[in-house]
């Protein structure tokens, strides 16, 4: 008989998709009548009341418990998880290939290498493995996880019905074509290719800007390279706005004309779903989990071709019927990620585990 179903992860922070996912899962488990807490090594001060310190888990641990462990990079936490008497369930958020961080961020590079070594150990110990996407699930199976299922990131669309942020709308009030990308400013996200795209698009339409939303703390050398490239290509109207509030993020989605995603590696890519919700046409390059998340929605290019993508973007902007077709398909796909549907998937898998 299962006593409790707890979750363990490195940290919990506001505005983070995995952190929100974790809190949603806790609430679902509690609604099913089980005790459920979130145990972390570190936590944002605003979320302290929603967590327990990892050191205290010894008082909760039991062979009758299920522990859900969120895993996306190497951590000494894994040794502690493997030593627990509890039944282990892994939620795999994917491990970015370490090659993108070599000579860019040494600590991240090391943790990703470590994570690849730890994944088979976790997979073999786990009684079940959740994955954000089919792409992630296949990696879990390859690592030795015997029972797996896809559980997309839980997104509560009601939280996105925000009024426009007055500061953001004032800064970008002049009307010009706006391209948007949302994600951490790290090499795997393909920012250099986005800049190349802008170079070609500005040959078609000069009055265009690019807004890149995402935290870049710790990756200043990479940001320096991006700024150098921007200067070299003589690009104007490129804005790295950093980490923003949820209200500001919603405003950027509403101000944009096209969402660009040319990432080399994604395990799910929440901004694709957010763009679908805001009726923002998506142009993306195929690969990793991008195809899983988009399904038949958006415009997916088999490979990065900046000239072709620039010409296609121009058509999206000028051909209203074409744009309407893209938005229609995205709305259909967005229904796949409605909160209740993901909740039902989780409950169904959890019942099979129990």
Automatic annotation (TrEMBL):
<dbReference type="InterPro" id="IPR001296">
    <property type="entry name" value="Glyco_trans_1"/>
</dbReference>
<feature type="domain" description="Glycosyl transferase family 1">
    <location>
        <begin position="171"/>
        <end position="331"/>
    </location>
</feature>
<dbReference type="GO" id="GO:0016757">
    <property type="term" value="F:glycosyltransferase activity"/>
</dbReference>
<protein>
    <submittedName>
        <fullName>Glycosyltransferase</fullName>
        <ecNumber>2.4.-.-</ecNumber>
    </submittedName>
</protein>
<dbReference type="Pfam" id="PF00534">
    <property type="entry name" value="Glycos_transf_1"/>
</dbReference>
<keyword id="KW-0808">Transferase</keyword>
<keyword id="KW-0328">Glycosyltransferase</keyword>
């Amino acid at each position: 008989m299962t006593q409790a179903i707890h979750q363990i992860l490195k940290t919990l922070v506001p505005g983070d998709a995995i952190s929100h996912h974790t809190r949603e899962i806790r609430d679902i488990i509690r609604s099913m009548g089980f005790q459920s807490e979130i145990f972390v090594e570190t936590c944002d001060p605003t979320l302290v009341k929603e967590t327990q310190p990892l050191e205290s888990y010894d008082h909760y641990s039991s062979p009758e418990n299920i522990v859900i462990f969120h895993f996306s990079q190497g951590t000494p936490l894994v040794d502690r998880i493997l030593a627990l008497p509890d039944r282990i369930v892994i939620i795999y958020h994917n491990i970015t290939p370490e090659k993108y961080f070599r000579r860019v961020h040494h600590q991240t590079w090391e943790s990703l290498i470590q994570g690849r070594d730890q994944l088979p150990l976790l997979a073999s110990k786990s009684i079940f493995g959740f994955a954000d996407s089919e792409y992630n699930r296949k990696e879990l199976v390859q690592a030795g996880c015997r029972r797996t299922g896809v559980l997309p990131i839980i997104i509560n669309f009601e939280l996105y019905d925000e009024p426009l942020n007055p500061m953001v709308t004032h800064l970008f009030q002049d009307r010009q074509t706006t391209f948007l990308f949302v994600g951490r400013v790290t090499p795997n996200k393909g920012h250099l290719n986005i800049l190349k795209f802008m170079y070609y698009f500005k040959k078609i339409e000069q009055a265009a800007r690019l807004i890149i939303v995402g935290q870049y703390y710790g990756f200043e050398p990479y940001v320096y390279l991006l700024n150098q490239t921007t200067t070299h290509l003589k690009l104007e109207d490129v804005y790295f706005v950093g980490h923003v509030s949820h209200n500001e993020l919603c405003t950027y989605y509403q101000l944009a004309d096209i969402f660009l995603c040319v990432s080399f590696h994604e395990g799910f890519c929440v901004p694709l779903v957010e763009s679908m919700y805001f009726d923002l046409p998506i142009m993306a390059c195929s690969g990793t989990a991008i195809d899983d998340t988009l399904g038949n929605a958006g415009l997916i290019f088999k490979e990065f071709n900046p000239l072709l993508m620039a010409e296609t973007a121009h058509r999206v902007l000028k051909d209203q019927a074409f744009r309407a077709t893209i938005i229609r398909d995205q709305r259909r796909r967005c229904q796949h990620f409605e909160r209740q549907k993901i909740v039902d998937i989780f409950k169904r898998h959890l019942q099979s585990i129990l």
